[in-house]
Design a protein that fits this description.
Helices cover 33% and strands 15% of the residues. The chain contains 16 helices and 15 strands. The strands form 2 sheets. An 8-stranded mixed β-sheet has the order 10-11-9-12-13-8-14-15, with helices on both faces. It has a 7-stranded parallel β-sheet with strand order 3-4-2-5-6-1-7, sandwiched between helices. It is globular and about 65 Å long. It binds adenosine monophosphate (AMP).
């Protein structure tokens, strides 16, 4: 792939009022995905962009989108002057909220309106904003269709469709909803597809719904950033939590994102860490929206050290660059390893990802190695025989520092345990009518993101 020479925002042909918002945010230069995608989007091209959260992908589609909508910007109060012209679909409520916050941020100085709709809260609370009219609508697929059915909105004037984290939308079973939505949109439109990975399914989706898309990549397919040091520690399942606790303590890590495969494991692990005296919380599908956002805010503000997350719950979270990600359990889907690791080492910052691998997970590790086309060195951290949940202070021999290096896995091979099936992974993300109302849209939207602890995108001066 040819290297682009660094360009400035001013060279991207964006309106001064949009550039002003970019400056307000403290961005100095476009990120690689922005430098590549913005000119293509402005030229009216469909794009299929491979970019993970943290690459600046939201601005990569929002800035040119706002530029293209500028001729329609209007201060008129009439809803008829504000039809939905751009639709941004996101797989999760958290991502939808974050994307809409970005749209608001970047449109601060132009009279374009936006709102967000997602499931899990009373649909009626979302109606007034739609009725007033918005140019940009951010939505999760299920809730969007609910609004279509309730005739709260019309999609026949949509000029630009953006599918954000399209791979996750497919993983979460949104394909039928996507197809229904696509059937409601004008055929003449621009479509921008963003995905962290390009699976065969994603390529099929693009073939079906995009017109001659330009492929935009900022990293090679299914690769992890070279700035991330990846380690594999062979640890029996029973010792994992004490190894993790020691790891966090010995490094004095301020923020650690820990991944488990199931929500049950996430909750249990967060409680176990708390018993070890490490401030921790879990974020998964059994927690309501308010609890999830509370845990995330506490993590961002540095009030908790360890955030334990399942893959789906962590998806789309705008967690600023983290120094350390721990795979407490390997993901059953190798591509999720790439997503998890993408939480650290962003935009040139150095990061570390440590996977605690039990012999039952060897098969998953091999899958990951196959995907990444590399073989990891297996290390064995020192573990004492102390009972795994002991609350007493740990002997020095508990240090997770690896003491031996071997390239072969010596643990007795056994069949991978079938992990307790987590139904939440299979069901669509947003229950609609039967979901208790958790809080109002206004209260969710008024949440101010906490001050980030870690540096972002290589430590640029960013206000968030
Ligand atoms: P995203 O990948 O869209 O989730 O963006 C990740 C973070 O990068 C967000 O907090 C943005 O505010 C920030 N960001 C986006 N573009 C830039 C830029 N050009 N320079 C610095 N930070 C940026």
């Amino acid at each position: 792939m040819e290297e682009l020479k660094p360009i400035t925002f001013a060279e991207l042909n964006l309106d001064p009022q949009i550039l002003r918002a970019v400056e307000d945010e403290g961005y100095t230069v476009p990120t690689p995905i922005q430098a590549k995608a913005i000119p293509l989007v402005l030229a009216g091209r469909d794009i299929m962009a491979m970019a993970q959260t943290g690459t600046g992908k939201t601005a990569a589609f929002t800035l040119p989108l706002l530029q293209m909508l500028l001729p329609h910007a209007s201060t008129s109060a009439s809803p008829a002057r504000h039809p939905i012209r751009a639709l941004i679909l996101a797989p999760t409520r958290e991502l939808a909220i974050q994307v809409e916050e970005s749209v608001e941020t970047y449109s601060a100085h132009v009279p374009l309106r936006s709102t967000v709709v997602f499931g899990g809260i009373d649909i009626k609370t979302q109606k007034p904003a739609l009725m007033k009219g918005v140019e940009v609508l951010v939505a999760t697929p299920g809730r969007l269709l609910d609004h279509v059915e309730s005739r709260n909105l019309q999609l026949n004037q949509v000029q630009v469709l953006i599918l954000d984290e399209a791979d996750r939308m497919l993983d979460m079973g949104f394909m039928p909803d996507l197809k229904r939505i696509l059937a409601l949109l004008p055929k003449q439109r621009q479509t921008l597809l963003f995905s962290a990975t390009f699976s065969e399914e994603i390529k099929k989706l693009a073939q079906e719904f995009l017109r001659n898309p330009e492929v935009v990549e900022v990293a090679r397919r299914n690769t992890t950033a070279e700035t991330v040091k990846q380690s594999i520690y062979l640890v029996d399942q029973t010792h994992k939590h004490s190894v993790l606790a020691d790891l966090i303590r010995s490094r004095g890590a301020a923020q650690v994102l820990v991944f488990t495969r199931t929500k049950i494991a996430a909750g249990k692990l967060a409680r176990a860490l708390e018993r070890e005296g490490i401030l921790a919380d879990a974020i998964h599908g059994d927690k309501n929206q308010q609890e999830r956002l509370k845990a995330l805010d506490a993590f961002k503000e540095g009030k908790i050290t360890a955030l334990v997350a399942t893959d789906v719950a962590a998806r789309g979270l705008d967690i600023d660059d983290l120094p350390l990600v721990v795979n407490y359990e390997l993901p059953s889907n190798a591509e999720d390893y790439v997503h998890r690791i993408g939480r650290t080492g962003r935009a040139g910052a150095s990061g570390e990802a440590i996977s605690l691998v039990d012999s039952a997970e060897e098969k998953m590790l091999l899958e990951i190695e196959k995907l990444l086309k590399r073989t990891f060195e297996r290390e064995r951290p020192e573990v004492s025989n102390a009972p795994p949940r002991s609350q007493s202070s740990r002997p020095a021999s508990h240090s997770p520092r690896p003491i031996s290096h071997s390239t072969t896995h010596t643990a007795t091979p056994r069949e991978p345990k079938k992990s307790a099936k987590d139904d939440w992974f299979d069901k669509p993300y947003e229950p609609t009518s039967n979901t208790p109302v958790i809080e109002t849209q206004a209260s969710l939207m008024s949440r101010k993101p906490g001050k980030p602890v870690a540096a972002l995108l290589g430590g640029l001066g960013v206000k968030r």
